[in-house]
Amino acid sequence: MKKIIGREEEKRQLTYYYESDNSEFLVVYGRRRVGKTYLIREFFAQKFCLYLTGLANAGTEKQLLNFQLSINEQTNSDFLCEKSWLLAFEQLKSVIQQSLHKKKVIFLDEIAWIDTPKSDFMTAFEHFWNHFCAARGVSLII
User: Fold this and answer.
1) Is residue 139 a contact partner of residue 103, using CB atoms and an 8 Å limit?
2) What's the pLDDT tens digit per position in 40-78?
3) pTM for this entry
4) Are 124 and 9 in contact (CB under 8 A)?
């Protein structure tokens, strides 16, 4: 891992959340171009169950394809592209259940790009967190 200089408080908090036995929902926000994504990527390095970056200016169909391609690439799976976010999150549940990682870390970067109009992303995302992740030691980072 490259050495992250500074950000001691942020690294301390990320360590705490990673080592926690509880499920954790982390929201990282701030001005653009200050290193938020870099911090998360470098800190967690190879510890992700899924790392997804939303596509700028893309509709639901392309976002779902991006989601499926990311899962397949990162887990050596062969999932088919789903037509809805509810079904796509079912794929992610399967990935989490099969993961050998101690802590299940999901990073959804640029979530505002993923949540396209009329996509029902937030409905499926909320259900995924409340029904599945909250009781399974998952760290969900947006």
Assistant:
1) yes
2) 999 998 899 999 999 999 999 999 999 999 999 999 999
3) 0.90
4) no
